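stuck on whats below:

***
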Amino acid sequence: MNYESCPITRTLEVIGGKWKPLILHFLAEGPRRSGELGRLVPQASAKMLTQQLRELERDGVVQRKIYREVPPRVEYSLSPLGQSLKPLMAAMCAWGAANPRPGKRLKPA
């Protein structure tokens, strides 16, 4: 098996990105508006957050719903394909909790 045919490569093509795993983590909890995601991931610029959301939408992992209101409201949620990533995101969360950075302590939940 080579790089291009490796299933991990395909997974990273979809979820790879500085903020995509965090976006997916928060969307796994339920639908979110972009402003809410921005507050949850304050280190990400609005431009980068929008770009990563568009890429996730393009890859079929995230769906965007536009409400015909004044002002317009846009909500993001996981698509059925995105829902299939929940076990992966949970495993990543568990690994991160069990293996904090050296010299760092995680606050108890």
